[in-house]
Amino acid sequence: MTWTTRGLAVSAVLAALLTAGCGGADQETAPAPTSPAASSVAPTPTATATASPTPGSPPVSSPAPEEPTPSSDDVRLEVTLADGKVSPSGEKVDVRQGQRVVITALSDVDEEIHAHNAGDGYTLGVKAGKLSRGQFVAEDKGRFEVELHESGDVIAILNVR
Amino acid sequence: MTPVPLHGIASRGDLPLPFSFVVVGAALALAVSFVVLLSTWRTPRLTELEGRDASALQRVVDAPAVRLAAAVAVLLLYAWVGLALAAGRDRLTNPVFGFVYVWMWVGLVPLSLVGGRIWRATNPLRTLHRGLTRLARTDPDVGLATLPARIGVWPAAVGLFGFAWLELVQPDRTTLGVLRVWALAWLVLGVVGAVAFGSRWIAAADPFEAYASTVAAASPWVRVDGGLRAVNPLRALATWDPPPGSVAVVSVLLGSTAFDSFGNTTWWIQTVQDSDLPGTIWGTVGLLAVIAVVALTFTAAAWWLGRAAARGPLGSGAGRAADYPRRMVASVVPIVVGYVVAHYVTLLVVEGQRTAIALSDPLGRGWNVLGTADLGVSAALFNYPGAVALVQLLAIVGGHVVGIVVAHELAVRVLPESAAVSGQLPMLAVMVFYTCSGLVLLFSP
Predict the structure, then answer these.
(1) Which one of B11, B274, B382 has the shortest CB-CB distance to A121?
(2) Is the interface score ipTM higher than 0.85?
(3) Could you tell me which chain A residue has the CA closest to the CA of B10?
(4) CB distance B346 to B381 below 8 Å
(5) Of B293, B297, B301, which Cα lies nearest the Cα of B258?
Protein backbone atom coordinates (compact mmCIF):
# COMPACT_ATOMS: atom_id res chain seq x y z
CA MET A 1 0.00 0.00 0.00
CA THR A 2 2.53 2.56 1.15
CA TRP A 3 5.10 1.62 -1.43
CA THR A 4 2.53 1.92 -4.17
CA THR A 5 1.81 5.47 -3.09
CA ARG A 6 5.51 6.15 -2.97
CA GLY A 7 5.88 4.77 -6.46
CA LEU A 8 3.13 7.03 -7.73
CA ALA A 9 4.75 10.02 -6.07
CA VAL A 10 8.08 9.20 -7.63
CA SER A 11 6.46 8.74 -11.02
CA ALA A 12 4.89 12.17 -10.67
CA VAL A 13 8.26 13.71 -9.83
CA LEU A 14 9.80 11.90 -12.79
CA ALA A 15 7.11 13.14 -15.09
CA ALA A 16 7.54 16.67 -13.80
CA LEU A 17 11.28 16.53 -14.26
CA LEU A 18 11.10 15.12 -17.73
CA THR A 19 8.47 17.64 -18.80
CA ALA A 20 10.52 20.46 -17.34
CA GLY A 21 13.58 19.18 -19.18
CA CYS A 22 11.73 19.29 -22.46
CA GLY A 23 11.04 22.98 -22.12
CA GLY A 24 14.68 23.68 -22.82
CA ALA A 25 14.61 27.38 -21.96
CA ASP A 26 12.73 26.78 -18.71
CA GLN A 27 15.41 24.58 -17.28
CA GLU A 28 16.32 26.78 -14.34
CA THR A 29 12.85 26.19 -12.92
CA ALA A 30 13.21 22.43 -12.85
CA PRO A 31 12.73 21.43 -9.22
CA ALA A 32 15.15 18.66 -8.43
CA PRO A 33 18.31 18.90 -10.52
CA THR A 34 20.98 20.72 -8.59
CA SER A 35 24.24 20.10 -10.38
CA PRO A 36 25.13 22.08 -13.50
CA ALA A 37 25.65 18.84 -15.36
CA ALA A 38 22.12 17.71 -14.64
CA SER A 39 20.53 21.00 -15.68
CA SER A 40 22.16 20.92 -19.08
CA VAL A 41 20.28 17.79 -20.01
CA ALA A 42 17.74 17.99 -22.76
CA PRO A 43 15.85 14.72 -22.72
CA THR A 44 13.43 13.70 -25.41
CA PRO A 45 9.74 13.72 -24.45
CA THR A 46 9.33 9.98 -24.03
CA ALA A 47 11.40 7.90 -21.68
CA THR A 48 12.60 5.54 -24.35
CA ALA A 49 15.85 4.93 -26.08
CA THR A 50 16.22 6.63 -29.41
CA ALA A 51 18.96 5.68 -31.79
CA SER A 52 18.19 8.45 -34.22
CA PRO A 53 18.57 12.18 -33.71
CA THR A 54 15.48 13.79 -32.22
CA PRO A 55 14.44 16.90 -34.12
CA GLY A 56 12.16 18.12 -31.31
CA SER A 57 14.90 18.75 -28.78
CA PRO A 58 17.76 20.89 -30.02
CA PRO A 59 21.00 21.05 -28.02
CA VAL A 60 20.93 23.41 -25.06
CA SER A 61 22.37 26.81 -25.95
CA SER A 62 24.71 27.25 -22.99
CA PRO A 63 26.07 23.95 -21.67
CA ALA A 64 28.42 23.82 -18.73
CA PRO A 65 31.99 24.38 -19.94
CA GLU A 66 33.28 20.95 -18.96
CA GLU A 67 30.38 19.16 -20.67
CA PRO A 68 31.05 18.00 -24.23
CA THR A 69 28.49 19.50 -26.54
CA PRO A 70 25.50 17.21 -26.96
CA SER A 71 25.36 16.10 -30.53
CA SER A 72 22.38 15.12 -32.61
CA ASP A 73 24.39 12.05 -33.49
CA ASP A 74 24.31 10.71 -29.93
CA VAL A 75 22.36 7.68 -28.91
CA ARG A 76 20.20 8.74 -26.00
CA LEU A 77 19.17 6.39 -23.28
CA GLU A 78 16.72 7.86 -20.82
CA VAL A 79 16.41 5.62 -17.83
CA THR A 80 13.82 5.84 -15.09
CA LEU A 81 13.73 3.55 -12.12
CA ALA A 82 10.64 3.81 -9.96
CA ASP A 83 9.22 1.32 -7.55
CA GLY A 84 11.65 -1.38 -8.58
CA LYS A 85 10.62 -1.16 -12.25
CA VAL A 86 13.06 0.08 -14.84
CA SER A 87 12.29 1.76 -18.11
CA PRO A 88 13.33 1.07 -20.79
CA SER A 89 13.38 -2.63 -20.05
CA GLY A 90 15.51 -4.94 -22.15
CA GLU A 91 15.16 -2.73 -25.20
CA LYS A 92 17.37 -3.38 -28.23
CA VAL A 93 19.24 -0.25 -29.32
CA ASP A 94 21.20 0.02 -32.57
CA VAL A 95 24.49 1.85 -32.19
CA ARG A 96 27.19 2.60 -34.72
CA GLN A 97 30.74 1.81 -33.72
CA GLY A 98 32.28 5.04 -32.38
CA GLN A 99 28.93 6.63 -31.64
CA ARG A 100 28.45 8.30 -28.25
CA VAL A 101 25.85 6.89 -25.89
CA VAL A 102 24.39 9.51 -23.53
CA ILE A 103 22.58 8.19 -20.49
CA THR A 104 20.25 10.24 -18.33
CA ALA A 105 18.82 8.53 -15.31
CA LEU A 106 16.33 9.27 -12.60
CA SER A 107 15.70 6.82 -9.83
CA ASP A 108 13.89 6.58 -6.51
CA VAL A 109 16.77 4.60 -5.04
CA ASP A 110 20.54 4.81 -5.16
CA GLU A 111 21.75 2.58 -7.97
CA GLU A 112 24.57 2.07 -10.39
CA ILE A 113 24.18 1.70 -14.13
CA HIS A 114 26.68 -0.53 -15.82
CA ALA A 115 27.27 -0.40 -19.53
CA HIS A 116 29.45 -3.25 -20.67
CA ASN A 117 31.59 -2.21 -23.53
CA ALA A 118 34.25 -4.81 -24.18
CA GLY A 119 37.06 -3.78 -21.87
CA ASP A 120 36.49 -2.13 -18.54
CA GLY A 121 32.86 -1.21 -18.90
CA TYR A 122 31.26 2.07 -17.95
CA THR A 123 29.65 2.85 -14.60
CA LEU A 124 27.25 5.67 -13.80
CA GLY A 125 26.37 6.24 -10.17
CA VAL A 126 22.75 7.25 -9.63
CA LYS A 127 21.52 9.03 -6.50
CA ALA A 128 17.91 8.76 -5.48
CA GLY A 129 15.81 11.69 -6.71
CA LYS A 130 18.61 13.33 -8.67
CA LEU A 131 18.93 13.44 -12.41
CA SER A 132 22.20 11.77 -13.35
CA ARG A 133 23.92 12.05 -16.65
CA GLY A 134 26.79 10.17 -18.18
CA GLN A 135 28.18 9.09 -21.47
CA PHE A 136 30.58 6.75 -23.13
CA VAL A 137 31.68 5.94 -26.63
CA ALA A 138 30.74 2.58 -28.11
CA GLU A 139 34.22 1.65 -29.22
CA ASP A 140 33.75 -2.01 -30.02
CA LYS A 141 31.38 -3.99 -32.17
CA GLY A 142 29.17 -6.54 -30.53
CA ARG A 143 26.20 -6.92 -28.22
CA PHE A 144 26.47 -5.21 -24.85
CA GLU A 145 24.06 -5.02 -21.96
CA VAL A 146 23.30 -1.86 -20.03
CA GLU A 147 22.07 -2.94 -16.65
CA LEU A 148 21.37 -1.94 -13.08
CA HIS A 149 24.06 -3.17 -10.76
CA GLU A 150 22.00 -3.78 -7.63
CA SER A 151 18.91 -5.39 -9.14
CA GLY A 152 20.65 -6.88 -12.16
CA ASP A 153 17.79 -5.72 -14.38
CA VAL A 154 18.68 -5.20 -18.03
CA ILE A 155 17.87 -1.67 -19.21
CA ALA A 156 18.92 -2.03 -22.80
CA ILE A 157 20.94 -4.22 -25.11
CA LEU A 158 23.23 -2.22 -27.36
CA ASN A 159 23.90 -3.77 -30.75
CA VAL A 160 27.05 -1.96 -31.82
CA ARG A 161 27.75 -2.44 -35.53
CA MET B 1 38.34 2.30 -11.91
CA THR B 2 40.02 -1.05 -11.72
CA PRO B 3 39.81 -2.83 -15.07
CA VAL B 4 37.91 -5.85 -13.83
CA PRO B 5 34.91 -7.18 -15.71
CA LEU B 6 31.81 -6.17 -13.80
CA HIS B 7 29.89 -9.39 -13.71
CA GLY B 8 28.79 -12.23 -15.92
CA ILE B 9 31.21 -14.50 -17.70
CA ALA B 10 31.08 -12.63 -21.01
CA SER B 11 30.23 -8.95 -21.22
CA ARG B 12 30.34 -8.96 -24.99
CA GLY B 13 28.02 -11.05 -27.11
CA ASP B 14 27.23 -11.82 -30.72
CA LEU B 15 25.29 -9.33 -32.78
CA PRO B 16 21.88 -10.57 -33.90
CA LEU B 17 21.85 -12.83 -36.93
CA PRO B 18 20.83 -10.64 -39.91
CA PHE B 19 17.23 -11.30 -40.86
CA SER B 20 18.20 -12.26 -44.41
CA PHE B 21 20.28 -15.08 -42.89
CA VAL B 22 17.26 -16.29 -40.95
CA VAL B 23 15.16 -16.40 -44.12
CA VAL B 24 17.86 -18.11 -46.19
CA GLY B 25 18.56 -20.61 -43.43
CA ALA B 26 14.91 -21.49 -42.95
CA ALA B 27 14.37 -21.86 -46.70
CA LEU B 28 17.43 -24.08 -47.03
CA ALA B 29 16.36 -26.24 -44.10
CA LEU B 30 12.90 -26.69 -45.55
CA ALA B 31 14.12 -27.39 -49.08
CA VAL B 32 16.77 -29.91 -48.02
CA SER B 33 14.27 -31.66 -45.77
CA PHE B 34 11.80 -32.27 -48.58
CA VAL B 35 14.48 -33.28 -51.05
CA VAL B 36 15.75 -35.87 -48.56
CA LEU B 37 12.23 -37.02 -47.80
CA LEU B 38 10.86 -37.25 -51.33
CA SER B 39 13.69 -37.90 -53.74
CA THR B 40 16.46 -39.82 -52.06
CA TRP B 41 16.88 -43.41 -50.97
CA ARG B 42 13.98 -45.60 -49.87
CA THR B 43 15.99 -48.53 -48.56
CA PRO B 44 18.50 -48.35 -45.70
CA ARG B 45 21.97 -47.30 -46.80
CA LEU B 46 23.85 -46.55 -43.61
CA THR B 47 23.50 -49.82 -41.73
CA GLU B 48 27.17 -50.79 -42.03
CA LEU B 49 29.87 -48.83 -40.28
CA GLU B 50 32.60 -49.65 -42.83
CA GLY B 51 35.08 -46.81 -42.68
CA ARG B 52 38.82 -47.17 -42.30
CA ASP B 53 40.80 -49.30 -39.95
CA ALA B 54 42.54 -47.16 -37.32
CA SER B 55 44.46 -49.83 -35.48
CA ALA B 56 47.70 -47.84 -35.65
CA LEU B 57 46.05 -45.02 -33.77
CA GLN B 58 44.38 -47.52 -31.49
CA ARG B 59 47.74 -48.97 -30.43
CA VAL B 60 48.70 -45.49 -29.23
CA VAL B 61 45.45 -44.42 -27.54
CA ASP B 62 44.89 -47.80 -25.92
CA ALA B 63 48.42 -48.14 -24.57
CA PRO B 64 48.10 -48.33 -20.77
CA ALA B 65 50.84 -45.75 -20.30
CA VAL B 66 49.08 -43.28 -22.63
CA ARG B 67 45.73 -43.85 -20.91
CA LEU B 68 47.26 -43.35 -17.49
CA ALA B 69 49.20 -40.26 -18.53
CA ALA B 70 46.12 -38.65 -20.10
CA ALA B 71 43.91 -39.45 -17.13
CA VAL B 72 46.47 -38.14 -14.64
CA ALA B 73 47.10 -34.99 -16.68
CA VAL B 74 43.39 -34.19 -16.77
CA LEU B 75 43.03 -35.00 -13.06
CA LEU B 76 45.90 -32.59 -12.31
CA LEU B 77 44.18 -29.90 -14.36
CA TYR B 78 41.00 -30.37 -12.34
CA ALA B 79 43.00 -30.31 -9.12
CA TRP B 80 44.61 -27.05 -10.25
CA VAL B 81 41.19 -25.55 -10.97
CA GLY B 82 39.93 -27.00 -7.68
CA LEU B 83 42.66 -25.04 -5.94
CA ALA B 84 41.31 -21.86 -7.55
CA LEU B 85 37.80 -22.85 -6.49
CA ALA B 86 38.77 -23.60 -2.91
CA ALA B 87 41.33 -20.92 -2.21
CA GLY B 88 41.21 -18.41 -5.07
CA ARG B 89 39.77 -14.91 -5.04
CA ASP B 90 36.08 -14.40 -5.57
CA ARG B 91 36.22 -12.41 -8.77
CA LEU B 92 35.86 -13.09 -12.44
CA THR B 93 39.61 -13.30 -12.95
CA ASN B 94 39.45 -16.59 -11.05
CA PRO B 95 39.90 -19.26 -13.74
CA VAL B 96 37.30 -21.60 -12.26
CA PHE B 97 34.38 -19.70 -13.80
CA GLY B 98 35.69 -19.83 -17.34
CA PHE B 99 36.84 -23.40 -16.83
CA VAL B 100 33.40 -24.61 -15.80
CA TYR B 101 31.12 -22.48 -17.99
CA VAL B 102 33.32 -22.29 -21.09
CA TRP B 103 36.00 -24.98 -21.20
CA MET B 104 33.89 -27.78 -19.76
CA TRP B 105 30.35 -26.90 -20.79
CA VAL B 106 31.10 -25.61 -24.29
CA GLY B 107 34.53 -27.12 -24.93
CA LEU B 108 33.33 -30.68 -24.47
CA VAL B 109 31.30 -30.41 -27.68
CA PRO B 110 34.17 -29.84 -30.16
CA LEU B 111 36.39 -32.14 -28.07
CA SER B 112 33.91 -35.02 -28.31
CA LEU B 113 33.02 -34.32 -31.92
CA VAL B 114 36.65 -34.49 -33.01
CA GLY B 115 38.10 -36.77 -30.36
CA GLY B 116 35.26 -39.24 -29.80
CA ARG B 117 35.03 -40.80 -26.32
CA ILE B 118 38.04 -38.87 -25.04
CA TRP B 119 35.99 -37.31 -22.20
CA ARG B 120 35.07 -40.69 -20.82
CA ALA B 121 38.65 -41.89 -21.11
CA THR B 122 39.95 -39.00 -19.03
CA ASN B 123 36.95 -38.22 -16.80
CA PRO B 124 38.45 -37.17 -13.43
CA LEU B 125 35.56 -38.86 -11.60
CA ARG B 126 36.58 -42.15 -13.20
CA THR B 127 40.25 -41.56 -12.41
CA LEU B 128 39.45 -40.83 -8.76
CA HIS B 129 37.17 -43.84 -8.51
CA ARG B 130 39.76 -46.10 -10.12
CA GLY B 131 42.34 -44.84 -7.68
CA LEU B 132 40.04 -45.58 -4.75
CA THR B 133 39.25 -49.10 -5.96
CA ARG B 134 42.95 -49.72 -6.52
CA LEU B 135 43.60 -48.78 -2.89
CA ALA B 136 40.71 -50.97 -1.71
CA ARG B 137 41.78 -53.75 -4.11
CA THR B 138 38.30 -54.04 -5.58
CA ASP B 139 37.02 -54.21 -9.15
CA PRO B 140 36.05 -50.70 -10.35
CA ASP B 141 33.26 -52.15 -12.51
CA VAL B 142 31.56 -53.81 -9.56
CA GLY B 143 29.87 -51.81 -6.84
CA LEU B 144 27.91 -52.72 -3.75
CA ALA B 145 24.72 -52.94 -5.82
CA THR B 146 23.85 -53.30 -9.50
CA LEU B 147 22.35 -50.39 -11.37
CA PRO B 148 19.31 -51.56 -13.41
CA ALA B 149 19.84 -51.17 -17.16
CA ARG B 150 16.63 -49.19 -17.56
CA ILE B 151 18.19 -46.35 -15.49
CA GLY B 152 20.23 -45.57 -18.60
CA VAL B 153 21.37 -41.94 -18.42
CA TRP B 154 18.34 -40.62 -16.52
CA PRO B 155 20.37 -39.42 -13.51
CA ALA B 156 22.65 -37.52 -15.90
CA ALA B 157 19.62 -35.89 -17.54
CA VAL B 158 18.62 -34.58 -14.11
CA GLY B 159 22.19 -33.44 -13.55
CA LEU B 160 22.24 -31.68 -16.92
CA PHE B 161 19.09 -29.83 -16.01
CA GLY B 162 20.79 -28.87 -12.75
CA PHE B 163 23.78 -27.49 -14.62
CA ALA B 164 21.59 -25.64 -17.13
CA TRP B 165 19.70 -24.11 -14.21
CA LEU B 166 22.98 -23.12 -12.58
CA GLU B 167 24.25 -21.58 -15.79
CA LEU B 168 21.09 -19.74 -16.79
CA VAL B 169 18.95 -19.15 -13.69
CA GLN B 170 20.93 -19.46 -10.47
CA PRO B 171 21.57 -16.02 -8.96
CA ASP B 172 25.25 -15.25 -8.31
CA ARG B 173 26.36 -18.13 -10.50
CA THR B 174 29.75 -16.50 -10.92
CA THR B 175 30.58 -16.42 -7.23
CA LEU B 176 32.79 -18.96 -5.51
CA GLY B 177 30.27 -19.80 -2.77
CA VAL B 178 27.64 -20.93 -5.26
CA LEU B 179 30.06 -22.81 -7.47
CA ARG B 180 31.66 -24.61 -4.50
CA VAL B 181 28.31 -26.12 -3.50
CA TRP B 182 27.60 -27.35 -7.02
CA ALA B 183 31.13 -28.65 -7.61
CA LEU B 184 31.13 -30.51 -4.31
CA ALA B 185 27.74 -32.06 -5.10
CA TRP B 186 29.07 -33.21 -8.49
CA LEU B 187 32.20 -34.70 -6.96
CA VAL B 188 30.50 -36.44 -4.05
CA LEU B 189 27.54 -37.77 -6.05
CA GLY B 190 29.89 -39.01 -8.76
CA VAL B 191 32.42 -40.79 -6.57
CA VAL B 192 30.04 -42.09 -3.88
CA GLY B 193 27.63 -43.32 -6.56
CA ALA B 194 30.49 -45.09 -8.33
CA VAL B 195 31.49 -46.79 -5.10
CA ALA B 196 27.87 -47.88 -4.64
CA PHE B 197 27.12 -49.00 -8.21
CA GLY B 198 30.51 -49.40 -9.84
CA SER B 199 31.97 -47.22 -12.60
CA ARG B 200 28.79 -47.75 -14.65
CA TRP B 201 27.28 -45.07 -12.40
CA ILE B 202 29.52 -42.40 -13.90
CA ALA B 203 28.22 -43.08 -17.41
CA ALA B 204 24.69 -42.97 -16.00
CA ALA B 205 24.95 -39.95 -13.74
CA ASP B 206 27.84 -37.65 -14.63
CA PRO B 207 26.13 -34.92 -16.68
CA PHE B 208 29.33 -33.97 -18.47
CA GLU B 209 30.15 -37.53 -19.49
CA ALA B 210 26.59 -38.16 -20.68
CA TYR B 211 26.72 -34.94 -22.72
CA ALA B 212 30.15 -35.83 -24.13
CA SER B 213 29.10 -39.39 -24.98
CA THR B 214 25.98 -38.11 -26.74
CA VAL B 215 28.03 -35.73 -28.88
CA ALA B 216 30.67 -38.42 -29.45
CA ALA B 217 27.98 -40.47 -31.19
CA ALA B 218 28.40 -37.98 -34.06
CA SER B 219 32.17 -38.35 -34.12
CA PRO B 220 33.95 -40.53 -36.70
CA TRP B 221 35.60 -42.74 -34.05
CA VAL B 222 33.77 -46.00 -33.50
CA ARG B 223 34.87 -49.32 -32.04
CA VAL B 224 33.76 -52.38 -33.99
CA ASP B 225 34.38 -55.64 -32.13
CA GLY B 226 37.01 -53.85 -30.08
CA GLY B 227 38.79 -52.42 -33.10
CA LEU B 228 38.95 -48.66 -33.60
CA ARG B 229 37.66 -47.43 -36.96
CA ALA B 230 37.28 -44.01 -38.60
CA VAL B 231 33.81 -44.00 -40.14
CA ASN B 232 31.44 -41.61 -41.83
CA PRO B 233 29.77 -39.76 -38.90
CA LEU B 234 26.40 -40.33 -40.61
CA ARG B 235 26.95 -44.06 -40.27
CA ALA B 236 28.21 -43.66 -36.72
CA LEU B 237 24.99 -41.85 -35.80
CA ALA B 238 22.71 -44.18 -37.72
CA THR B 239 24.13 -47.25 -35.93
CA TRP B 240 24.21 -45.71 -32.44
CA ASP B 241 22.00 -47.35 -29.82
CA PRO B 242 21.18 -44.56 -27.34
CA PRO B 243 20.73 -45.55 -23.68
CA PRO B 244 17.37 -45.05 -21.92
CA GLY B 245 16.96 -41.42 -20.84
CA SER B 246 18.68 -40.10 -23.97
CA VAL B 247 15.53 -38.23 -25.02
CA ALA B 248 15.67 -36.33 -21.73
CA VAL B 249 19.38 -35.63 -22.22
CA VAL B 250 19.01 -34.15 -25.71
CA SER B 251 15.84 -32.27 -24.70
CA VAL B 252 17.69 -30.59 -21.84
CA LEU B 253 20.64 -29.78 -24.10
CA LEU B 254 18.57 -28.34 -26.94
CA GLY B 255 16.03 -26.70 -24.63
CA SER B 256 18.60 -25.01 -22.41
CA THR B 257 20.56 -23.63 -25.35
CA ALA B 258 17.34 -22.31 -26.87
CA PHE B 259 16.31 -20.80 -23.54
CA ASP B 260 19.66 -19.04 -23.27
CA SER B 261 18.78 -17.15 -26.47
CA PHE B 262 15.12 -16.82 -25.61
CA GLY B 263 16.14 -15.12 -22.36
CA ASN B 264 17.73 -12.36 -24.43
CA THR B 265 14.56 -11.43 -26.29
CA THR B 266 13.14 -8.06 -25.31
CA TRP B 267 9.76 -9.66 -24.74
CA TRP B 268 11.11 -12.08 -22.15
CA ILE B 269 13.27 -9.50 -20.36
CA GLN B 270 10.34 -7.08 -20.12
CA THR B 271 7.93 -9.75 -18.95
CA VAL B 272 10.28 -10.87 -16.18
CA GLN B 273 11.38 -7.40 -15.08
CA ASP B 274 7.91 -5.90 -15.11
CA SER B 275 6.51 -8.78 -13.09
CA ASP B 276 6.44 -8.93 -9.30
CA LEU B 277 7.47 -12.58 -9.32
CA PRO B 278 11.19 -13.17 -8.69
CA GLY B 279 13.31 -13.69 -11.82
CA THR B 280 14.44 -17.05 -10.45
CA ILE B 281 10.90 -18.39 -10.68
CA TRP B 282 10.47 -17.05 -14.21
CA GLY B 283 13.80 -18.53 -15.19
CA THR B 284 13.03 -21.94 -13.71
CA VAL B 285 9.58 -22.13 -15.28
CA GLY B 286 10.81 -20.78 -18.61
CA LEU B 287 13.71 -23.23 -18.77
CA LEU B 288 11.44 -26.16 -17.88
CA ALA B 289 8.86 -25.02 -20.43
CA VAL B 290 11.32 -24.84 -23.32
CA ILE B 291 12.78 -28.25 -22.41
CA ALA B 292 9.23 -29.66 -22.18
CA VAL B 293 8.36 -28.29 -25.63
CA VAL B 294 11.40 -30.03 -27.10
CA ALA B 295 10.74 -33.29 -25.27
CA LEU B 296 7.02 -33.41 -26.12
CA THR B 297 7.32 -32.49 -29.79
CA PHE B 298 10.15 -34.94 -30.35
CA THR B 299 8.44 -37.73 -28.43
CA ALA B 300 5.16 -37.23 -30.29
CA ALA B 301 6.84 -37.22 -33.72
CA ALA B 302 8.94 -40.30 -32.96
CA TRP B 303 5.96 -42.10 -31.47
CA TRP B 304 4.00 -41.41 -34.65
CA LEU B 305 6.84 -42.90 -36.67
CA GLY B 306 6.86 -45.92 -34.38
CA ARG B 307 3.15 -46.44 -34.88
CA ALA B 308 3.60 -46.44 -38.66
CA ALA B 309 6.56 -48.82 -38.29
CA ALA B 310 4.36 -51.40 -36.56
CA ARG B 311 2.65 -51.81 -39.96
CA GLY B 312 6.00 -52.02 -41.73
CA PRO B 313 8.10 -54.87 -43.14
CA LEU B 314 9.54 -55.76 -39.74
CA GLY B 315 6.08 -56.21 -38.21
CA SER B 316 6.39 -56.77 -34.48
CA GLY B 317 10.17 -56.77 -34.97
CA ALA B 318 9.91 -53.00 -35.37
CA GLY B 319 9.45 -52.73 -31.63
CA ARG B 320 7.09 -50.73 -29.49
CA ALA B 321 6.13 -47.21 -30.58
CA ALA B 322 7.00 -45.99 -27.09
CA ASP B 323 10.63 -46.98 -27.70
CA TYR B 324 10.94 -44.85 -30.83
CA PRO B 325 11.76 -41.55 -29.18
CA ARG B 326 14.90 -43.16 -27.75
CA ARG B 327 15.71 -44.93 -31.03
CA MET B 328 15.40 -41.66 -32.99
CA VAL B 329 17.65 -39.60 -30.68
CA ALA B 330 20.60 -39.81 -33.07
CA SER B 331 18.72 -37.59 -35.51
CA VAL B 332 18.53 -34.71 -33.06
CA VAL B 333 22.15 -34.90 -31.85
CA PRO B 334 23.49 -32.97 -34.89
CA ILE B 335 20.90 -30.27 -34.25
CA VAL B 336 22.11 -30.00 -30.65
CA VAL B 337 25.68 -29.66 -31.89
CA GLY B 338 24.66 -27.04 -34.47
CA TYR B 339 22.83 -25.03 -31.80
CA VAL B 340 25.79 -25.11 -29.44
CA VAL B 341 28.30 -24.11 -32.11
CA ALA B 342 26.07 -21.26 -33.31
CA HIS B 343 25.35 -19.95 -29.84
CA TYR B 344 28.71 -20.35 -28.17
CA VAL B 345 31.48 -20.28 -30.78
CA THR B 346 32.60 -16.74 -29.95
CA LEU B 347 32.24 -17.41 -26.23
CA LEU B 348 34.48 -20.45 -26.56
CA VAL B 349 37.09 -18.62 -28.62
CA VAL B 350 37.21 -15.37 -26.66
CA GLU B 351 36.43 -16.40 -23.08
CA GLY B 352 38.33 -19.65 -23.62
CA GLN B 353 41.47 -17.56 -24.11
CA ARG B 354 40.74 -15.55 -20.99
CA THR B 355 40.46 -18.79 -19.04
CA ALA B 356 43.77 -20.07 -20.38
CA ILE B 357 45.39 -16.85 -19.23
CA ALA B 358 43.72 -16.91 -15.82
CA LEU B 359 44.80 -20.52 -15.23
CA SER B 360 48.36 -19.32 -14.69
CA ASP B 361 47.28 -17.50 -11.55
CA PRO B 362 44.64 -19.62 -9.74
CA LEU B 363 44.93 -17.78 -6.43
CA GLY B 364 45.07 -14.25 -7.82
CA ARG B 365 48.56 -13.57 -6.52
CA GLY B 366 50.18 -12.48 -9.76
CA TRP B 367 51.64 -15.89 -10.58
CA ASN B 368 52.53 -16.97 -14.08
CA VAL B 369 52.87 -20.70 -13.51
CA LEU B 370 51.85 -21.84 -16.98
CA GLY B 371 53.48 -18.94 -18.79
CA THR B 372 50.15 -17.74 -20.15
CA ALA B 373 49.56 -14.84 -17.77
CA ASP B 374 51.04 -12.20 -20.05
CA LEU B 375 49.16 -13.28 -23.16
CA GLY B 376 46.41 -11.02 -24.39
CA VAL B 377 42.88 -11.98 -25.32
CA SER B 378 42.21 -11.62 -29.01
CA ALA B 379 38.63 -10.57 -29.47
CA ALA B 380 39.16 -9.94 -33.18
CA LEU B 381 36.38 -12.38 -33.97
CA PHE B 382 33.86 -9.76 -32.89
CA ASN B 383 35.14 -7.39 -35.57
CA TYR B 384 33.87 -9.74 -38.26
CA PRO B 385 30.19 -10.13 -37.40
CA GLY B 386 29.46 -11.20 -40.97
CA ALA B 387 31.83 -14.14 -40.69
CA VAL B 388 30.42 -15.09 -37.29
CA ALA B 389 26.89 -14.94 -38.68
CA LEU B 390 27.93 -17.19 -41.56
CA VAL B 391 29.43 -19.73 -39.15
CA GLN B 392 26.22 -19.62 -37.12
CA LEU B 393 24.08 -20.15 -40.21
CA LEU B 394 26.23 -23.02 -41.45
CA ALA B 395 26.24 -24.66 -38.02
CA ILE B 396 22.46 -24.54 -37.63
CA VAL B 397 21.63 -25.55 -41.19
CA GLY B 398 24.46 -28.12 -41.32
CA GLY B 399 23.23 -29.71 -38.09
CA HIS B 400 19.76 -29.81 -39.57
CA VAL B 401 20.87 -31.48 -42.81
CA VAL B 402 22.83 -34.19 -40.99
CA GLY B 403 19.92 -34.69 -38.59
CA ILE B 404 17.40 -35.03 -41.43
CA VAL B 405 19.56 -37.55 -43.27
CA VAL B 406 19.94 -39.68 -40.13
CA ALA B 407 16.22 -39.43 -39.35
CA HIS B 408 15.37 -40.47 -42.90
CA GLU B 409 17.75 -43.43 -42.75
CA LEU B 410 16.34 -44.60 -39.42
CA ALA B 411 12.80 -44.17 -40.77
CA VAL B 412 13.22 -46.10 -44.04
CA ARG B 413 14.57 -49.07 -42.09
CA VAL B 414 11.22 -49.60 -40.43
CA LEU B 415 8.49 -47.82 -42.38
CA PRO B 416 6.17 -49.64 -44.79
CA GLU B 417 6.03 -48.41 -48.41
CA SER B 418 2.53 -47.07 -47.77
CA ALA B 419 3.74 -44.80 -44.97
CA ALA B 420 7.21 -43.98 -46.30
CA VAL B 421 6.39 -40.27 -46.39
CA SER B 422 3.55 -39.83 -43.92
CA GLY B 423 5.34 -41.83 -41.23
CA GLN B 424 8.28 -39.44 -41.05
CA LEU B 425 6.53 -36.19 -41.89
CA PRO B 426 5.92 -35.17 -38.25
CA MET B 427 9.58 -35.86 -37.37
CA LEU B 428 10.67 -33.73 -40.31
CA ALA B 429 8.30 -30.95 -39.25
CA VAL B 430 9.62 -31.05 -35.69
CA MET B 431 13.22 -30.81 -36.88
CA VAL B 432 12.39 -27.89 -39.19
CA PHE B 433 10.71 -26.28 -36.18
CA TYR B 434 13.87 -26.66 -34.04
CA THR B 435 16.05 -25.29 -36.81
CA CYS B 436 13.85 -22.29 -37.60
CA SER B 437 13.46 -21.55 -33.89
CA GLY B 438 17.22 -21.63 -33.51
CA LEU B 439 17.61 -19.15 -36.36
CA VAL B 440 14.89 -16.82 -35.07
CA LEU B 441 16.38 -16.90 -31.56
CA LEU B 442 19.77 -15.95 -32.99
CA PHE B 443 18.05 -13.05 -34.73
CA SER B 444 17.28 -12.08 -31.14
CA PRO B 445 14.00 -10.14 -31.48
Answers:
(1) B11
(2) yes
(3) A118
(4) yes
(5) B293
